[in-house]
Amino acid sequence: MSVVEVRDVRRTYPTSPPVHALLGVDLTVAAGERTAILGQSGSGKSTLLNVLGLLDEPTSGTYRLLGEDTAGYDGAARDRLRSRALGFVFQESHVLGHRTVAENVLLKLVAAAVPRSERAPLVADVLHRVGLDHRADALGRLLSGGEKQRLAVARAVVTQPRLLLADEPTGNLDDGNAATVLDLFDEQARAGVAVVVITHDPRTASWADRTVRLVDGRIEPGVEA
Ligand code: ADP
Ligand code: MG
């Protein structure tokens, strides 16, 4: 079973005039696969990521996540599937500046309804894996850019997602921190997580197992298998 199965997905924004952001996208992503999505600004990358992340619904077509057809899921069912199966990393990491590093991670576990007794060991383990254990008690706003992004990865993976979605996760990082973030994504892929990354960054495109290019709401033919 594939983690992601997108079939003929279209997304039209009902503006005036309407914007046809996705025009029939097919995409399959297997467990453990690292996919980079490339494309010019306005080609539909964020729209596709929002569909994959259950933040937006296709206008038509089907999206199966972990074998479940997500059509017709109400908000609560989407929220449940999102917090059970998905992790997100964005270019501007969503770190809570007035909370400590450990609290930032802990709050993700609270939101995902992880039982209280399981939380502390999960926080300690993930902070160790991203190399932030020595910063556990520091306030989020005091972290460097690279540390913030590692914390964002920790928040995304602590709930053990099956699909990790990232929008320009290395865009603002120097080479060393970009490599660290990609190493963390590798660790996820080796554990069987499907990793889908939107990027303009050649470092990230060459890291992926395959690249998919969006052109005007369609996947460029001949590139996507
Ligand atoms: P990318 O991420 O590749 O830059 P987007 O998916 O953000 O592309 O946008 C694709 C197209 O859809 C663009 O023409 C954009 O202006 C339009 N668009 C994106 N979001 C909305 C929205 N909420 N309402 C109307 N049009 C939108
Ligand atoms: Mg975008």
From TrEMBL:
Residues in ABC transporter domain copies? 4-225
Q: Name one GO molecular function term.
A: transmembrane transporter activity
Q: Would you say which domain of life the source belongs to?
A: Bacteria
InterPro entries tied to this protein: AAA+_ATPase, ABC_transporter-like_ATP-bd, ABC_transporter-like_CS, ABC_transpr_LolD-like, MacB-like_ATP-bd, P-loop_NTPase
Q: Which UniProt keywords apply?
A: ATP-binding, Nucleotide-binding, Transport
List, alphabetically, the PROSITE patterns matched: ABC_TRANSPORTER_1, ABC_TRANSPORTER_2
Cellular component per GO?
Answer: plasma membrane
Q: Which PANTHER family match?
A: ABC TRANSPORTER ABCH.1, IMPORT ATP-BINDING PROTEIN
UniProt-recorded name of the protein = ABC transporter ATP-binding protein
